[in-house]
Amino acid sequence: MTPETNNDETLIRPKRAALPPVPEGMSKSQWKKQWKKEQFEANKPLYAKIRKEKKQKAREQRRERMQKALEENGGEIPEELRRTPRVNVNQKDSGIKVIIDCAFDELMNDKEIVSLSTQITRAYSANKRENHFADVKVTSFNKRLKERFDCGLKGANYDAWKHFEFTDDSTLPTTNAVYLTADTDETLETLEPGTTYIVGGIVDKNRHKALCYNKAKELGIPTRRLPIGEYIKLSGRKVLTTTHVIQIMLKYFDNHDWKEAFESVLPARKLAELADQAEGSNSSTPSQEPDAQDI
Questions:
Q1: Taking the alpha carbons of 78, 80, 85, 87 in that order, is the dihedral positive or negative?
Q2: What is 95-122 written as a DSSP string?
Q3: DSSP assignment, residue 69?
Q4: What's the CA gap between 22 and 27, in Å, rounded?
């Protein structure tokens, strides 16, 4: 695949080549999966270059906005342009524990494993920056996910992350624990200190229906769903990344206000309009989009 450029000569992602003839002894689906993987590996350097260009462009645009704002505000930096500190030194303990259950390695492809690892690193960043933190444990940390952290994220130093623990143990608590899933009818009313909240660590584009709900049911763990529909309306499907789920829970402790937490964390494109407080909305139809999960 040959990279293209736009009008300002910035590299853009290459168009995917047509699928070559299926090799003998292979099904079309097997060949398609292998071909996509080969193309992804072959274009890794290009993708890295594209990401580097985007970051550089974003930095330049920020500098321009900063300079303009300084000129217009007499040397004062506007609040929206101030960088969030990487570590919040005034954090308070939320009192809750969070488990990211990653026992679904074999149900994801390599690209989804990469996506999950990214969500976990972002969840760690959020846990450092928010006003409240939780003690987070990543369970079933093995196989390709561990390989991704050890080889693909060299220098992450994840074993030294504060308030974050990685373990290959797959055991989940069954007392004082709640498994978050959109497939349940029970709504999470509040977050209780001393309780462990389990989040399914899987990116599967809805191939596996009610996966976390069924697992929780088999283990005897109560299930709850975040009260999204009761407080906001989304422009699309009610799906959240692992990062969003953890951020929302941490934000909730600021004022114990779900609506405020949702609005603060979810990207503007996801927020179509605020739910009518008097009428409310109880839609909880589970669905899925890439790199996200139903909560």
A1: positive
A2: EEEEEEE-TTGGGS-HHHHHHHHHHHHH
A3: H
A4: 7
Among 101, 105, 183, 204, the one annotated catalytic: 204
Task: Report yes or no: 115 and 128 within 8 Å, Cβ to Cβ.
Answer: no
Sorted by sequence, the CB contacts under 8 Å of residue 126 that are 6+ apart come out as 243, 246, 247, 250
Query: What angle (nearest 5°) sits at the alpha carbon of residue 178, between those of residues 264 and 235?
Result: 35
Q: What is the pLDDT of residues 68-88, one digit of tens each?
A: 777 777 767 666 666 666 678
Q: Which of 217, 219, 229 is nearest to 295 (CA)?
A: 229
Number of domains comprising the chain: 2
For residue 216, give the H/E element and its range: helix 211-219
Instruction: Tell me, yes or no, whether 268 lies in a domain.
Output: yes
Tell me the pairing of strands 293-294 and 239-240: antiparallel
On whether both 57 and 192 belong to a single domain, the answer is no
Distance between start and end Cα atoms, the chain:
37
For 98-112, write each residue's pLDDT tens digit: 999 999 999 999 999
Catalytic site includes residue 110: no
Residue 10 domain boundaries: 4-62
